[in-house]
Design brief:
242 residues, alpha/beta, Rossmann fold, 7 helices, globular, binds fructose -6-phosphate
Length: 242
Amino acid sequence: MNILTFDSSEQLNEAGANIISGLVQTNPRAVLGLATGGTPVGIYSHLVGDYRRGLVSFRQVTTFNLDEYVGLPASHPESYSSYMQRHLFGHLDIPADRTYIPDGNAPDLEAECRRYEQLIDTAGQLDLQLLGLGHNGHIGFNEPSHALLRGTHVVTLAEETRKANARFFPTLQDVPQQAITMGVGTILQAKMIVLVVRGADKADIVHRALTGPIATECPASLLQTHPHLVVLLDKAAGSRLA
Ligand code: F6R
């Protein structure tokens, strides 16, 4: 594992964007796994800058998002579909039919999970998976548990996850109870994983995930088993690492 700690959030954003742009420059048909939430916003805005400066084109890239809320209309401003349009897809040359996000409004959610997994399989291995980290150690929406599921599945969000995400909604009651998420097995199959974490409030969980025992109670700890893991931290998030 390669851990990089940055003095400023701007440097971290640039480093994250450089990894993604560099990959797409060398492999224009790259398959990217993408995350949402507060963490990647600055990286996405840097990527948009790279695209606008003509440094990279996303015309042949395929993307798969990690997760989507269940029951939130795709047009809702906090759906991950809206988020991706707002922060990334709406500003790039990527064709809409190459950007995949689970459909949290599918009439049959189990069938939707199987369909999504099949789409990832058909696209081939993810070349890169971008991840944020939950305060409880979740990656995607794989919440701490005595057992983790390998493939895409429906998950009931942990209360602490709903509370953390309540900042994006009018009230806690408005935060959906469930989501569709890629499973840890799907995430770990990516050729390269880029885990990005910011903030002092995540210093403890960064320490536990990267140096603690590998256990399903801290899903991110399974990343220790990945042969090509890059961790991008701001100073605060890395403060508990030696
Ligand atoms: C988002 C996702 C989540 C977030 C995590 C951190 O697609 O899968 O695992 O990465 O909840 O969220 P933020 O970045 O808002 O702190």
